[in-house]
């Protein structure tokens, strides 16, 4: 494993230094192994590991390339790891969301277009006043994703997208067991949207915090 780690570090060094840039094709395995002073087996293992986390793209019959290194692509690895969360860590994921999502919502208040606001409004109208819990949670995910995307920070968007998965089950559970949870969520969505329309970043931040904190508070009371 130590030899493979060394190989990973050397390839990483080539990418960080600019010797290999996004979209570049890696030299042939034998040439690269000789250049880096590695065995072909350790190089092969390193390439396999870096392809799993979307740093490299192995194309059968064509060669190995550096990916675009786009944040959304790289953070897919986060989503993969997050899927292995335990139920007792859901509160920790919610706490991270409570830090990041209100900030993204405040950023969105200053950047979101009228067209995007209208799309969010239509989304809520389509949901109606008495959706099923599953419909509400699906809408909730899309609603917040749309807001975060309009904040204009692809890294923040990808992070929050990866973190949203573990809290989905908690939101469904709350909707099924807590009285007025559905109505409360709809009111909070409307309040967030109103703050965005007013271009009031602090109100948008506050309502997003309330929205996430209400799920977190409920979950604490049930555990």
From TrEMBL:
GO molecular function, one term: DNA-binding transcription factor activity
Coiled coil (residue ranges): none
Region forming the signal peptide: none
Gene3D superfamilies membership: GntR ligand-binding domain-like, Winged helix-like DNA-binding domain superfamily/Winged helix DNA-binding domain
InterPro entries with a match to the protein in the record: GntR_C (IPR011711), TF_FadR/GntR_C (IPR008920), Tscrpt_reg_HTH_GntR (IPR000524), WH-like_DNA-bd_sf (IPR036388), WH_DNA-bd_sf (IPR036390)
Pfam family, one: FCD
SMART domains, per the entry: FCD, HTH_GNTR
Domain HTH gntR-type: 1-69
Keywords: DNA-binding, Transcription, Transcription regulation
PANTHER family noted in UniProt: TRANSCRIPTIONAL REGULATOR, GNTR FAMILY (PTHR43537), UXU OPERON TRANSCRIPTIONAL REGULATOR (PTHR43537:SF5)
Protein name: GntR family transcriptional regulator
Organism: Streptomyces griseoruber
